[in-house]
Request: fold
Amino acid sequence: MERYVKTYKSKWQNQYTEEFKRSICEEFLKGTATLRSVERKYQIGNSRLNHWLIEFGYKVKKPYILETTVMAPASASL
Reply:
């Protein structure tokens, strides 16, 4: 699998191949790794994978956790 389309002399100006992008997206969509861990594994930029997923028509929502506070029961006497 080719990582770059060899159109520029500099590595930073090269574009990733379609095959490379799709294989990375498929690996993430299998659910075995997080978005950031896949980006670190293949040394691609932050949010690059998220951009590719959107480009290929996948909607990936970031899960978030809401913290709730436990309130003390109200006392009956005032």
